[in-house]
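Below is a filled-in request sheet from our internal design queue. Each sheet records the structural input a requester submitted and the sequence that came back. We keep these sheets so that new team members can see what a complete request looks like end to end.

REQUESTER: design group, bay 2
PRIORITY: normal
MODE: inverse folding
CHAIN LENGTH: 743
BACKBONE (tokenized):
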């Protein structure tokens, strides 16, 4: 075991950061105490910063390769860093991060410690075992059928001297996948499938020496299979690891020492320490400390809650402010977030290929077509006429045209900013008659916003109330404080000089401004500061507000709320009136808040479900599904993932949680609900095109079949009719791609 100590500055003196490597895993150990040596400070400066990305200059990178390597390893292991780019020659490092997880100010402070740590810490990178995955060599079916078609054209219409044996061999090789699928249908599925019909038609025409017909048929079959596989949703989609969504490391207190260990090593009974900007990695109870927790991704509550000693906290929630020591009770998949993931994994897995009525009808025509071909042969003793009957099946055209149409629709949707993952999702979306929305972050913006400022003192204007509040709360990371600052900036309110200030977690802030002692916070906070609150008597208090007082007098009130998305009313109205869809709303908020939002949107009270945790959300979706409704669920949080998985079709946003985004069948890349209307319109248009294509294929094939049965038809002519209708249907299916992207 290797252990190295390095001193870092702290507010209480010196602390030491140790890095040990044991059993191939890196452990960070922090000791309180005094450092024996004074380390040279690592200089750095900020070159450029925008929300989510910051670029810094670190001169030591230019002339110290070892330092650059150590810094790279530390940044790779840092849970707050999304990605980074080191340029030693330019002495710069660019870091991307999630601004919702950590503020720019705190990230700068954190990176300062990282830069200092890299100066002396010897970082031993865990050995990465390179896994070599054998590359599966797929059967070159399309290439073989293409070669067979080319040879048939050269040896047939063009009259070149090509050996029949060579052409038969090429056709035989290209037919092997068809033979395998036909054999599987007989031996495993116990039925005669479409491939069996194709196999017989190919065999008869090949034996007769009509090489162009089977070769062309094989080419179109292979093209259809390729397109169908392209539209299929990958059944082996990677399993989402709960721990990776929470970060890679956690701080624990063991043997009176603070250790940063891999999250999967945290055990029940461990004391876990969570700092500002970090996600809680376990379910447990607070032993000491207090923190302001953002539980939106888990419960849907848009406003952070203050939790103190003795209260329960849950994995995946974010510490906005404060610090907690948590007694671990549940870890990994036993946590509330983990159970949400298990619910998702237990959801029924649907077929990844598009199941539609046309394909079902086509499959049912196999046996009648086979019997009809046999009867024609028995009556006429003409294998060519029998082969013509077998060639004129509806299934081949449908197998090609349906995937082509779906692929064109998926491409068109992507061009419009809507990612639809599969043909099945497209089909279900076209049939949706019920849509369930999560409220927070889906119908609402998911963050606090000031909706009004009111003065309660005749001598003070509302602008002055806002000015005092914004000055007092500047640089605080509380969501309501940030909302007040945004509102003040939008109204071009000038900040005043602020001297002393004291922020009390979960209550409010006290500040000296312009010679006044200003209090901004909850009603309880102002009462504790002995502010006269008699101005509130007889007034109806808003659901969410902060109060502003000065020198013992109440000055005003600032009301805030989680505002609706600008497009929510229009989209809900369109769904209810034009699309004739039943709309439900699910939320973790209380009934009063949920009812108020539902009333603004025109959602019926009976379809509003409040105080819903992940299990209840999944239950609501299941119950609607059991009523024979085709249900779409729209959500963006970890708490939405079970409901997303149980829905017939699930919709999320590009900026939603990782689990929600990966679970969803449809992702709205522009983070706008209008994309949902786009997706439904495209899906319904695709359904109409498939119905049109079914007619384009069925009518000429049925007419040619009648001719083949009663008068006889050359197999090549039958192939032209069959494949010609397929081509026409395929071109018709490409119509979505011809539409303007911004139509």
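RETURNED SEQUENCE:
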């Amino acid at each position: 075991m290797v252990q190295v100590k390095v001193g870092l500055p702290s507010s209480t003196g010196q602390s030491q950061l140790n890095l040990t490597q044991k059993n191939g895993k890196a452990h960070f150990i922090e000791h309180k105490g005094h450092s024996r040596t004074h380390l040279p400070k690592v200089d750095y400066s900020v070159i450029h910063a925008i929300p989510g990305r910051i670029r810094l200059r670190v001169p030591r990178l230019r002339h110290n390769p070892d330092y650059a390597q150590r810094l790279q390893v530390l940044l790779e292991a840092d849970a707050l860093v999304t990605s980074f780019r080191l340029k030693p020659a330019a002495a710069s490092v660019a870091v991307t991060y999630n601004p919702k997880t950590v503020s720019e100010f705190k990230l700068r402070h954190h990176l300062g410690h990282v830069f200092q740590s890299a100066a002396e810490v010897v970082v031993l990178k865990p050995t990465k075992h390179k896994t070599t995955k054998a590359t599966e060599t797929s059967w070159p079916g399309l290439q073989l059928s293409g070669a067979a078609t080319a040879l048939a054209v050269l040896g047939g219409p063009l009259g070149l001297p090509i050996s029949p044996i060579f052409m038969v061999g090429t056709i035989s090789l290209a037919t092997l996948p068809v033979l395998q699928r036909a054999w599987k249908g007989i031996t495993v599925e116990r039925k005669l499938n479409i491939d069996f019909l194709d196999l017989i038609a190919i065999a008869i025409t090949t034996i007769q020496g009509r090489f162009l017909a089977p070769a062309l048929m094989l080419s179109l079959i292979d093209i259809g299979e390729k397109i169908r596989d392209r539209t299929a949703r990958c059944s082996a989609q990677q399993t989402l690891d709960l721990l990776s969504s929470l970060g890679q490391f956690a701080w624990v207190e063991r043997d009176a020492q603070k250790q940063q260990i891999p999250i999967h090593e945290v055990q029940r009974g461990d004391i876990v320490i969570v700092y500002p900007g970090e996600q809680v990695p376990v379910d447990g109870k607070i032993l000491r400390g207090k923190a302001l927790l953002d539980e939106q991704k888990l419960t849907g509550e848009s406003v952070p809650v203050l939790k103190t000693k003795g209260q329960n906290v849950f994995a995946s929630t974010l510490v906005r402010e404060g610090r907690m020591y948590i007694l671990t009770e549940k870890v990994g998949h036993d946590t509330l977030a983990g159970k949400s993931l298990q619910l998702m994994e237990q959801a029924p897995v649907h077929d990844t290929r598009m199941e539609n009525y046309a394909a079902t009808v086509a499959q049912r025509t196999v046996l009648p077509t086979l019997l009809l071909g046999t009867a024609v042969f028995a009556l006429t003793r003409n294998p060519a006429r029998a082969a013509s009957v077998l060639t004129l099946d509806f299934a081949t055209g449908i197998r090609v045209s349906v995937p082509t149409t779906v692929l064109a629709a998926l491409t068109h949707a992507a061009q419009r900013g809507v990612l639809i993952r599969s043909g099945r999702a497209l089909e279900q979306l076209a049939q949706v008659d019920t849509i369930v929305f999560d409220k927070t972050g889906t119908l609402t913006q998911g963050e606090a916003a000031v909706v009004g400022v009111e003065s309660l003192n005749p001598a003070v204007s509302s602008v002055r109330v806002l000015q005092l509040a914004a000055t007092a709360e500047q640089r605080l990371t509380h969501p309501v404080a940030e909302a007040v600052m945004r509102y003040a900036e939008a109204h071009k309110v000038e900040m005043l000089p602020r001297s002393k200030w004291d922020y009390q977690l979960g209550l409010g802030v006290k500040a000296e401004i312009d010679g006044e002692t200003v209090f901004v916070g909850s009603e309880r906070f102002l009462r504790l500061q002995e502010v006269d609150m008699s101005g509130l008597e007889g007034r109806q208090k808003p659901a969410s507000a902060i109060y502003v007082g000065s020198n013992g007098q109440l000055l005003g009130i600032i009301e805030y709320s989680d505002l609706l998305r600008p497009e929510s009313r229009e989209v809900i109205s369109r769904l209810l009136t034009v699309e004739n869809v039943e709309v439900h709303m699910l939320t973790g908020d209380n009934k009063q808040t949920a009812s108020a939002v539902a009333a603004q949107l025109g959602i019926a009270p009976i379809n509003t479900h409040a105080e819903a945790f992940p299990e209840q959300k999944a239950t609501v979706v299941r119950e609607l599904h059991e009523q024979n409704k085709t249900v779409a669920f729209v959500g963006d949080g970890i708490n939405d993932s079970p409901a997303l998985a149980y829905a017939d079709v699930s919709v999320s946003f590009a900026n939603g949680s990782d689990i929600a985004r990966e679970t969803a069948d449809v992702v709205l890349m522009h983070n706008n609900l209008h994309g949902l209307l786009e997706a439904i319109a495209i899906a319904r248009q695709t359904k109409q095109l498939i119905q049109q294509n079914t007619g384009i294929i069925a009518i000429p094939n049925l007419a040619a079949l009648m001719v083949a049965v009663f008068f006889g038809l050359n197999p090549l002519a039958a192939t032209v009719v069959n494949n010609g209708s397929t081509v026409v249907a395929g071109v018709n299916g490409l119509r979505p791609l011809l539409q303007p992207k911004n139509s």
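SHEET NOTES:
- The chain has five domains: 45-119, 142-249+347-417+686-742, 250-345, 418-443+565-668, 445-563.
- Residues 1-39, 121-137, 231-246, 343-357 have pLDDT under 50 and may be disordered.
FILED BY: M.R.
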